[in-house]
Amino acid sequence: MKIRLASAALALVVAGCAQTPPQPTVSAAAMPVPANVPAWQQGRTPDQAASPLAPHAARNIAVPATEIPVRNLRVPPGFRVELWASGMPGVRAMSRAGNGRIYAGTRGIGRVYEITDNGRERTSRVLVDRLTQPAVTYHNGSLYVASIDKVLRYEGIDANPNVQPTDLTARFALPPEQHHNWKYIAFGPDGKLYVPFGAPCNICLPGDAYAQIRRYNADGTGMEVVARGVRNTQGFTWHPVTREMWFTDHGRDWMGDDSPEDELNRMTRAGEDFGFPYCHANGVADRDIRRDRPCGGVTLPVATMGPHAAAMGVHFYTGTMFPAEYRNVLLVARKGSWNRTKKFGYDVVAVRTDANGRNPQVTPFVTGFLDTATDSFWGRPVYMLQMPDGSLLLSDEQMGAIYRISYGG
Q1: Are 271 and 292 contacting, i.e. CB atoms less than 8 angstroms apart?
Q2: Which one of 183, 230, 373, 407 is most buried, counting C-beta atoms within 10 A?
Q3: Positive or negative CA dihedral for 270, 232, 302, 243?
Q4: Alpha carbons 75 and 92: distance in angstroms, whole number
Q5: Is 258 strand, coil or helix?
Q6: What is the reported pLDDT for 13?
Q7: Where does the signal sequence lie (predicted)?
Q8: Beta bridge partners of 245
Q9: 129: nearest Cα among 165, 96, 78
């Protein structure tokens, strides 16, 4: 596989405070979600009422290692993928602490796992349970856990893994809606904590508290909205050279098998509008929420990631284990579609652009979770974590497993 470096000499992202953009006049109803309709059905037309499409059930049980067909996974020549840890239902985004322990959040199961590697095997325990869709990140000796209605900080967790958390919830002023409000959190190069607040619907006017990315000081003070028009981002990172934020965003449902596609966005300044609910993907006007010039003033994506692909975690590879042509290349995990007649995604892809972030090329990196012949899947890749030796961990929410991707040897 030939890969070109993604590099640029561009300005530092989110250099200043974002301002709320003016709201245009809307010519359609706000489409509130009916109380008796499941959130995922909102936005269906009458002729779609009989559709068999529905979100795939999570496999929130501990799956034995012998039942995980890692042998089916395919990676480019010279790479190797192996089962690294299992038995963690719903495992999602991971963060590595200073002592080498790895912490991972979940969604529906509400747990945070602590994973320990003794050099021979990996064991896990539940650090905290019964949270509402928690995510984690490690920063300056503390583990941060953010759920829809709670923010906890475990100070000094390296030295004391049983430390009791500090509750920071009141400082974050969290809005209560659950749909698309599940979390992914990370600290940026500016030392700020970035938190998404997805749209509380499939398609609607989201209000002032949703469809945005915010940043906070580490203690929860100093909130700023740095991006609007973001329907549902479940992964972001910063370019290792330009320090610009790149993030995925899920397209709306019930506009057909092939539209709108998910997005890969690049934020070059604070306050940009990424289109929701009026404009999707590469300039697709919404059919239900309309305005004049729906994509006017909107920052369009660097690349579209495929229809209903559920693009999740993103990672710029910075290690030395992989071949040099992978340096600073963006890897994107696509969890896989449900709102599509024929399934799409269920893989990890590499995205390369030119020096200005244009002319994207999307190529396979990890495949084999989806059997296209039978249109069935067994795993759903979601997030990546680079290890000190340059290998890459990849979490699989469906199997409750983590795979290790290495090169050579």
Answers
A1: no
A2: 230
A3: positive
A4: 21
A5: coil
A6: 38
A7: 1-20
A8: 238, 267
A9: 165
Q: Are 270 and 18 in contact (CB under 8 A)?
A: yes
Please, are residues 381 and 34 in contact by the beta-carbon 8 Å criterion? no
Task: Name the burial class of residue 87, with classes exposed (0-12), middle (13-18) and buried (19+) by CB atoms within 10 angstroms of its CB.
Answer: middle
**What is the helix (H) or strand (E) element at residue 393, kind and residue range?**
strand 392-396
Per-residue pLDDT, 34: 63
Return phi, psi of residue 233, to 5°.
-85, 135
CA distance 37 to 50: 14
CA 246 to chain centre: 11
Rounded to whole angstroms, how far apart are CA atoms 283 and 360?
17
Torsion of CA 386, 389, 390, 393, to 10 degrees: -40
Among candidates 403, 335, 333, 336, which has minimal Cα distance to 375? Answer: 336
The backbone region for 171, taken as left when phi is positive above 0, alpha when psi lies in -120 to 50, beta otherwise, is alpha
- In this predicted structure, the answer to whether residue 176 has a pLDDT above a threshold of 90 is yes
State how far the Cα of 96 lies from the Cα of 114, in Å rounded to an integer.
10
pLDDT, residue 5, reads 33
How would you classify the pairing of strands 212-216 and 151-155?
unpaired
148 neighbors 183 (Cβ within 8 angstroms) = yes
User: Residue 119 pLDDT more than 70?
Assistant: yes
Residue 392 CA from chain centroid, whole number: 17
Q: According to the CATH classification, is domain 69-407 in 2.120.10.30?
A: yes
Q: What is the pLDDT of residue 120?
A: 86
What's the confidence (pLDDT) of residue 409?
A: 62
Q: Is 407 helix (H, G, I), strand (E, B) or coil?
A: strand
**224-228: strand order across its sheet:** 186-187, 193-197, 212-216, 224-228, 272-273
How far apart are the C-alpha atoms of 139 and 155, rounded to whole Å? 10
Domain boundaries, the chain: 69-407
Return the residue matching tokens 């989806």: 370
Burial state string for 227-242 with b = 16 or more CB within 10 A and e = fewer than 16: bbbbbbbbbbbbbeeb
> Quick check: helix, strand or coil at residue 100?
coil
